[in-house]
Amino acid sequence: MPELTSRRGLLFGTAAIGAGALLVGCTSNESSDEPAANDQPAADDKPGKEVTIGFAGPQADHGWLNAINDNAKSQAKKYSDVTLEITEGSNDTAAQIGQIETLINKKVDVLVVLPADGKALTQVGLKAMRAGIPVINLDRIFNTPQAYRCWIGGDNYGMGLNAGHYIGEKLKDKADAKVIELAGLDNLELTKQRTQGFDDALKNYPNIKKVARQAAEFTVESGQAKMAQLLQAQSKFDALWNHDDDQGVGALRAIEQAGRDDFLMVGGAGALSAFQAIKQDSGVLKATVLYPPTMAASAIDLARALGQGKGVGGMAEFEIPASITLYSAVVDKTNVDRYMSTGFK
Amino acid sequence: MTQHASPPRDSTGKVQSADGAPAWRGLMARADVRTLSLLGVLAALIVIGGITKPDEFLDTRNLQLVLTQASVIGVVTVGMTFVIISGGIDLSVGAIVALASVWATTVATQEYGFAGILFTAVIVGVGCGLVNGVLIAYGGMVPFIATLAMLASARGLALQITDGKTQIVTIPSVLDLGERDAYVLGIPPLVMVFAVVTIIGWLVLNRTTFGRRSVAVGGNAEAARLAGIDVRRQRLYLYLLSGLCCGIAAFLLIILSGSGQNTNGNLYELDAIAAAIIGGTLLTGGRGTIVGSVLGVLIFTTITNIFALNNLQSDVQQIAKGAIIVAAVLVQRRTASTT
C-alpha cells in the first residue's frame, strides 16, 4: 500500500508541477504598443531649462487609468529636458498623501497630481503650493483653486450632452423615438453629471423619450448583466447611450447574445475595442464620446511650460491657463482613424 | 435559535434522536418546510413580476435570462454551501473567480484555445482552493483570515496580470457557447452546467460519505474526530471543492462576458454567503441544503430581474434587496418553528 500511495503521490506531484509550469507561462500579456499622445506640445519642442516633474496618480486598476500613466510617461520621454519622478499608484488617500509629500521633500519643480479622491487630497495640494511647487491638478479636482496652479480634466456633463446631441440628430426625424441609457456606477457624482448632460441634450428633441435607465458598475460583467435585463425590458427602442466602453464590452456581448441589432449605440470614454468596432461598422456601436486619457500628456506639457516659465503654444498668453476643460468629442466612423491611436485597452 | 442545539450523532455522522431512532424523518420534514417557504417567496416574486410586467417577465427569453444570470454565482454558491456546512467560510471566492478568469484569458493562454482556457480556469481555481485548504487544515489558520488573505493576494495578482486592462476573448468556440445558437432544447449551456453542478452537489452532500463527513465536521469537529473522521483532510477537500467551483464559475463568466477582467466576481463572497444563508444553511455549520442555496440564488436573481424590468434604479434596488433578505429569513424562521 505505501508503495501505491507514493506512486500516486509522485504521479499527482508531477502533474501538479507540469500544470504549474504551463500556467506560469500563461501570465504573459505582452504587447508592444506605444501609448498614444498628441504630437503638439504646449511649449516648443526645443530643449530648454531642465524641469523635474513629480507625478502621483491612483492605482491603475482599469484601462483608462492605465492609459493615463502611459500617456504621462511617454510624453515625458519625448523631452530631453524633462525628468519624470513617478510614484507607485495608490487608491489609499493616506498613502497618496505620503507619496506627494515625498515628492515635495525631493523638491521637484512641478507636481502633476491625479488624486484618488480630490477632496481628501486638497490639503497636500495646498502644502505643495505653499512650498513653492506649482501643482497641475489632473481630472479629479481639489476642493479649492488655491491648491493648484492649473486644473486640466475631462467634462462629464459634456459627455452626456454630446452623446445626447449625437443621438438626437440621428433620430430627429423619427416620431416617438425611444432611447435607453446604461449608466456607470451610480455612487459616483460623475455618473449623475453624465446623466444630467444626456437628459438636458434630449430636451432639445421633443420627439425623443428616454424610456429606461439602468446603472452598471464600469465592469464588463455588470455591463453584460444590466444590458441583458434592459434588452428584455425594452422590446423596441431606437438608441442606447452607454457611459463607459469597458462595461460596453459586456453590453455588446449581451446585445449579440440577444440577437438584437435594431438600434444605434453610442459609447463613452474611448477604448480601443470601441474604436475598432466603430471602424468596422458591422454592429450597433456607431460612435463613442471621449473622456480622453491624453489629458495626462497635456498635463506633462503644461508642467514643462510652467517649469520653463513659458505659455501654451498657439495662445497669446504669457502664462499657462488656470483651468482647462477638455472637449468630449464624438468619435464616429468619419473621424475614428484620427483617434485610433489614443484608444486604451 | 432552537436549531443550534446539535443532536447526538453516530459514527457516520448520521443524526440520531434521543430515543436512538433515526431522526432523519423529522429533519427531512423540517428541511421541506424551509424549502417550501423559499419556494413560496420565489412564487410571490413571480406573481409580482407577472403583474407588473406581464409581457416582459412571463416570457421564455426572460426565464433563460434569469437562469443564465444565476449560473455563475450559482456554481460558486454550491461550493460555498459545502464550506459553510462544515463550519468554515470562504471569503476569497470572488477574487478566485477574478484571478481564474484573467489567467485563463491572457494572450498566452488563448493560444491554447478552448481547452487551454477551460484547463487554466479550473486549475487556477483548484490551486487557490488548495492553498486555502492547506493553510486552514494544516496551518491551523482561521478560515476567515486565511481566505481574507487569499482575497487580497488573488485580486492583487489578477490586477498584476491584466495591468487593469480588459482582456477580450477571441476564441470562437468559447464565445459560441454563450450565443442563442448553442441552446439545446431552449436551455443555455451555462444553465446546463449550473444544473449539473447542483445535482452533483446534492448527490455528494446527501448520498455520499463525503457529504455526511462534511456535515459532521461542521456540527461538532471534535466529535467527528473522535468518530474517526480525518477532520483536517476533510477541510482541505472542502476548500478544494470551493476552489473548483470558482474555477468552473470563472469559465462560465468568460463565456458570458466574452472577456476577463480583474474586477470580475466583485462581492461574490457576500452574494454567495447571503444566498446560502437565506437558503437555510447555518453560518455556524452542521446544517444546510444545496436546494435551499440554489433557491436563494434564484430569489436574488429574480429580484434583480424584476427591478430592472420595472426600471427601478440601483438605490431602490439595494434598499429593497436588504429588506427582502430580512423578510425571507423571518418568514423561514416562523414557518420552521411552527412545525
From TrEMBL, chain A:
Compartment annotation: Cell envelope
Limits of the Periplasmic binding protein domain: 53-310
InterPro entries per the UniProt record, alphabetical: Peripla_BP_I, SBP_2_dom, TAT_signal
Signal listed as a keyword: yes
Keyword terms: Signal
Annotated region (Disordered), positions in chain: 28-49
Family label: Belongs to the bacterial solute-binding protein 2 family.
Protein name (database record): Substrate-binding domain-containing protein
Organism name: Streptomyces lanatus
From TrEMBL, chain B:
Superkingdom as given in the UniProt entry: Bacteria
TM ranges: 33-51, 63-84, 91-108, 114-135, 142-162, 182-205, 236-256, 290-309
Membrane topology of this protein: Multi-pass membrane protein
Name assigned to this protein: ABC transporter permease
Organism encoding this protein: Streptomyces lanatus
Compartment(s) where it occurs, according to its Swiss-Prot or TrEMBL record: Cell membrane
Keywords of this entry: Cell membrane, Membrane, Transmembrane, Transmembrane helix
